[in-house]
Write a structure and sequence with these properties.
By secondary structure, the chain is an alpha+beta fold. It has five helices and twelve strands. A five-stranded antiparallel beta sheet has the order 5-6-12-8-9, with no helix packed on it. Strands 4-7-11-10 form a four-stranded antiparallel beta sheet, with no helix packed on it. β2 and β3 form a beta hairpin. The radius of gyration is 26 Å and the shape is flat.
Length: 246
């Protein structure tokens, strides 16, 4: 979604967005590179990048749209795509061939290693199989129902972070990062299996959490000392006042 529409959607809707915040706060820089390609590339380039990140629909603001931040150059590029909604020169298009799931099996050779070569992105998109499902449990955990791996990898279109941890049937799986900055796993399942993926923030978030606790403790201590100092001053003032009256 473009501009302020994305920000308002964050406030009033649980819809998951390809980008929905300030670019300077983005964790996955490859996602930002993909966003620039979608904004300025041709139709094929834009759709390929969107499919690579699991996007199912795109909201485009035309030249007469009341949306101030008209993100997409040449919005007519998207004409011809299935229209889900249109009003005031603002249109939501469906992405043809997009899957409802963010998890897919793919040959290991299809996993993107170098996103600088657009042919790798095309190969990855074409290799994805719509045979797995992903279900969120809150914001820090999701479950993937995966088919028998048979030597195939499992691509999950969620940005990788060292805070993600995965298990399947009691086994710990290595959560790996592909060239798009997304998650991929080697499930090694002999049959259909369930993979639980949880996020604990990693060492970065743990350090920030402890720093926050330390900062709060310092503020509380400073407040107590300040309050104690004020009471001592008030008490001293009362003693001086009584001494002067006697």
């Amino acid at each position: 979604m473009p501009g302020s529409i994305a920000m308002w959607a964050n406030l009033f809707s649980p819809v998951q967005q390809f980008q929905g915040g300030a670019w300077s706060m983005a964790y996955n820089m490859q996602q930002q590179r993909a966003s620039w390609a979608v904004q300025g590339g041709d139709t094929h380039t834009a759709l390929t990048w969107l499919k690579a990140f699991g996007v199912g629909a795109i909201c485009v603001s035309g030249p007469k749209s009341p949306e101030f931040w008209k993100t997409y150059g040449h919005p007519e590029r998207f004409e011809g795509l299935p229209v889900l909604w249109r009003e005031d020169d603002t249109t939501i298009y469906s992405i043809p061939g997009a899957s409802a799931s963010l998890a897919h099996s793919a040959p290991a050779s299809g996993i993107v290693r170098d996103a600088r070569d657009f042919r790798n992105i095309e190969q990855y998109v074409n290799s994805l199989q719509d045979d797995a499902s992903l279900r969120w449990r809150g914001t820090n955990e999701f479950v993937v129902q995966a088919p028998a791996s048979g030597g195939r990898a499992l691509s999950v279109q969620v940005s990788w972070s060292p805070g993600w941890h995965a298990t399947a049937s009691g086994r710990t799986l290595r959560v790996q990062k592909d060239g798009l900055g997304l998650i991929w796993l080697d499930p090694q399942c002999t049959g259909p299996c369930e993979i639980d993926v949880q996020y604990d923030g990693g060492w970065e978030l743990r350090i920030l959490r402890w720093l926050s606790f330390a900062a709060m403790a310092v503020l509380v201590a400073a407040f107590v000392l300040l309050a104690s100092g004020k009471s001592e001053i008030i008490s001293a003032g009362h003693r001086m006042s009584r001494a002067q009256t006697t």
